[in-house]
Design a protein that fits this description.
The chain has 466 residues and is an alpha+beta fold. It has 3 domains: 167 residues, no CATH class; 104 residues; 160 residues, Heat Shock Protein 90 (2-Layer Sandwich). 58% of the residues lie in helices and 17% in strands. The protein has 11 helices and 12 strands. α1 crosses α3. The longest helix has 55 residues.
């Protein structure tokens, strides 16, 4: 029980109520003691009135008056004259004097605590003001033990009352915590456990019902998290299914393209000039398609294979990309500009670099053609001691905000309607596999610029490829 929320609330409530009662108990005991002593002074003054009525009273009557007032003697001061009104033998010397004429609160508290802790039977003197202007001063001597016994009884009553109040308060708080906090929290926990068993089931997503603001905020946050997680799990499941389907299609397509590759080898021996000019392009395209199918199958098993580094001519790769895209935009007013040094040689995987550049140029071409306006795509390469840099610019409409937020995320960063957004993801993975970086430099209504940076150091490739 002590480990539960409601149990700890119960224990803390009892402790706090008892502490509050302690702060109430001390001044209340001091007040009780003051009232007790003032009452004794008043009763002693009333007993002395018998002497004023009759100057001569019998010793038996005087003893009875003092016994009823619970004092040993009474001294009155009127007109600066101190008069012993009533008296009887005192069993022991006076050990303390208490002045009840306007005492401070701290004095009353200190005297009350001293009376409680001192078990000795003492004779004390009490001084105060007479009631109803009965004189200047009244003084009595009395036994302190009855006062201490009365204080102890009063303290026990306060303790029992405090315990009763604590139990009632703690019980009410316990029930309130159970109804307002513990039960709703257990409900949230049950919802979380049910959701954990079947996170793909949207019916297990929590429906906020709490009336407490903080708990409802927690339920709202939990619902948002569960909704996002369920959506992510569904997307991953679909991607897994899509990956399996792509692997099967790639396997069969590779076989078909391999057969087509055999036929293109014979076409190359044709004497037709047009066939001789187009056949190498066709052979290169089919070869790349076969490689793409093989790498797709490899990706389905593990990941994109590590690049096979060799010395490649960048101008040749860019030329192949542009030739392919010129054919795709043969009847569209689209121009290509390339500023690639003819002798620039990179240390890279030629096929993977071709795919990365091809995806970027193809995206630029499709974006321009979607506008229906003429456009231009430019490629420029420079190098320094550390990196090779290739800049790809276009005059397209720029990337929308959603595409910028999910730029390198599959199936979320697509620009065209029906697009998957895989082109940039694949290009970024291929460049990263070389230890390089693909980044968006700028995008606006006037066009978009991407930058590919490849390192010249061998050490930069290893961790990125992994």
């Amino acid at each position: 029980m002590t480990n539960s929320l409601s149990g700890r609330f119960l224990i803390l409530t009892v402790i706090f109520v008892m502490l509050a009662e302690v702060f109430i108990f001390v001044p209340s005991v001091a007040r009780f003691r003051e009232d007790y002593l003032l009452a004794r002074l008043e009763r002693a003054q009333i007993a002395s009135l018998a002497l004023e009525a009759d100057d001569m009273i019998s010793p038996a009557l005087e003893s009875e008056l003092l016994r009823n007032a619970e004092v040993y003697n009474v001294v009155l001061r009127r007109d600066e004259i101190r008069q012993l009104a009533l008296s009887s033998p005192i069993p022991s010397p006076i050990t303390a004097t208490y002045d009840m004429r306007d005492p401070s609160a701290m004095t009353l508290i200190a005297d009350a605590l001293r009376t409680l802790v001192d078990p000795e039977d003492r004779i004390v003197r009490v001084i105060g003001h007479p009631v109803r202007d009965g004189g200047l001063l009244i003084e009595v001597t009395m036994d302190e033990m009855p006062l201490r016994n009365a204080l102890l009884e009063y303290g026990r009553n306060i303790l029992f009352l405090s315990a009763f109040i604590s139990i009632i308060t703690a019980s009410l708080l316990f029930l309130s915590v159970q109804i307002l906090l513990v039960r709703p929290i257990k409900g949230v926990v049950s919802q979380m456990q049910a959701y954990a068993k079947a996170p793909e089931d949207a019916r297990q997503i929590i429906t906020p019902r709490a009336s407490v603001t903080e708990l409802r905020d927690a339920e709202e946050a939990l619902r948002t998290m569960q909704t996002q997680m369920t959506s992510s799990l569904k997307q991953k499941e679909r991607l897994a299914q899509l990956g399996g389907a792509v692997a099967k299609v790639s396997h069969d397509l590779r076989n078909i393209l391999t057969s087509a590759q055999l036929f293109t080898d014979r076409i190359e021996s044709s004497d037709d000039p047009l066939v001789k000019r187009m056949a190498p392009k066709l052979v290169g395209s089919i070869t790349r398609a076969v490689n793409l199918c093989e790498t797709t199958l490899a990706f389905g098993r593990v990941d994109e294979p590590a690049p096979r580094l060799s010395r490649v001519n960048l101008a040749q790769i860019v030329g192949d990309v542009i030739d392919s895209e010129r054919l795709a935009a043969a009847d569209y007013p689209l121009s290509f500009a390339e500023d690639i040094p003819a002798t620039m040689t990179l240390r890279a995987d030629g096929e993977q670099l071709y795919r990365a550049i091809f995806n970027l140029v193809r995206n630029a071409r499709q974006a321009i053609m979607a506008t229906g306006d003429p456009g231009e795509i430019g490629l420029q390469a420079v190098e320094d001691d550390l990196t090779w840099c290739l800049t790809i610019t276009d005059t397209g409409p720029g990337l929308p905000k959603k595409a910028q937020e999910h730029l390198f995320q599959p199936f979320q960063g697509g620009v065209r309607k029906g697009g998957s957004g895989l082109g940039l993801v694949i290009a970024a993975d291929l460049v990263r596999g070389h230890g390089g970086r693909l980044e968006l430099k700028s995008t606006s209504a006037q066009g978009t610029t991407f930058l590919i940076q490849l390192p010249k150091e061998d050490m930069a490739l290893a961790p990125a490829a992994e």
